[in-house]
């Protein structure tokens, strides 16, 4: 109902007193805003206001994983990447496969990949996130010749660290670029992928109006080995999903494994496993939920000598910093 709370000001309130945030008439800023302002929020659809395009859109928010605040931007139901279209429709985690181009202008802090051998989250085999060193728009996902990515192999670069979300642990702070594929042209492959994240398309390997496939690579991967700064295409990976030189698959190791289990061309090593049929979800997070951080941003550690020291977590990096009590 519409309630007059102050002179000349009216607000929407629910009849039972529950929060209306995330409704069409009371949209959230992003999925982290839902976490911050709705204590009993559950994963599901919420309305958010995209300030970049000044419109209200429906989004699926994950309010639990890694503190919550993740927005679903893609779902695919096999390992082939070049056939996945993009559209202006909201992505349903159990719906049809596509990328959502309506979030192309949203700035992202984290991007997260999750794949399962069934359509259920419970059968997830690999699940990781990249914290970006600098925020950028979703439509600028893939970069070339900077941020650790090379001139000839663009990818998701400028990565600050990789987090394995199956064990909720940062596993590599030296990793910089998840190679996507080769550089053919800004109009095809990686360049088209970025365009598809802003404008509906039939797939990144196709030019508009042309059914002939022009690219045979396109993958997402990471390495937990701290001496590996890149993964995918020409490099081995801890987990891999997509296509490399015409061969498409998902490859993964044991839960919490920190070795590389995947070679190029869908070959498993070190006890890794290869699957052809997987369901993949891609999520982005534009900001960290402040409510979650406030619970753990200040803490104490008792050393072996019994001395208690105070620490604070850096909200952007997640690194602990010792508090100088004399300041």
From TrEMBL:
NCBIfam families: GGGWT_bact. This is Uncharacterized protein. It holds the Pfam family Fibrinogen_C.
